[in-house]
Amino acid sequence: MLRAIAVLVAAAVASLSLAAAVANARTPTAAPTPTPTVAAPTTADYDIILWADARQSSQPIVAKIGDVVCGGETQAPVMPPDSGVLVHHVRMQSAASSPGCGRPGATVTFFVGDRQADRTAEWRAGEDQSLTLLVGPPFARIWGNADLHLNTGGERLAPFIGQEVCGYQENSWQGAAPPFGYSLVVYSRELRAGCGVEGAQVSFKLLDEHHNVLAVAVEKGFWHAWDGTPATFESLNLTMVPPGDIRVGSVGTGDSRESDGPLIDVVVLGLALAGLATLATGATLRKRTT
After folding, report:
1. Which of 22, 39, 254, 261 is least buried, going by the fewest C-beta atoms within 10 A?
2. pLDDT value of residue 176
3. Same-domain status, 84 and 117
4. Which residues contact 188 (CB under 8 A, 6 or more apart)?
């Protein structure tokens, strides 16, 4: 009797074990979700406004670390709408993809042809840095408002140092009514004989399309080399009067006979006054080549 009961119990346990095994076989174990692998960035990017010999330039930029060329422009420079500036996009490779190239903290130098730009940058993987580069002799930039009336809109301001025309108005007039915004480039003596040295006095004349003097500014500025940052722009608001209203001994450009001096070959380069504020816009609007 006891043996029969034991046999029944053993059979029941075996049946339950079989049922559990069948259930487990029908319910597969979920596989663990793999963790996605994110590749480390292997390039560093730079949005650059380039000035060469006191003019915005579209010349190609080459980037180096030491003597190794590690990058260059991925496309032709672009001009974001209403900016008046050319934005270059330079991409640099890492040491992992190009031996001798980018590693965190490495110093990047920039070249235009065989000339090195004035500033360097740091190689930082995955970042998009913005900077202004200068190549060639120094120059000054002066900007502000001019209290004047325009007849055609083609009139241009000319900066003078002594009797020499020493630069050009780089932008179209800003604003729809007086005063109008202006921005000037003023050459150094390395760029044009007789022009700017540190602290030299700058006077201003308004010229028409035929280079006739229409007005002179009462105020004067001073020549200071621009280093590519807003801090070294000179800000100066100008009051324009007819040439004959300025006499020896008055505050302004001196005797009205100065209007007989040499006249400027005016070159208009667009709305470059907005240049320093549009690098970020240029970065978002460019069509990168990947």
Report:
1. 39
2. 86
3. yes
4. 54, 137, 138, 139, 140, 195, 196, 197, 223, 225
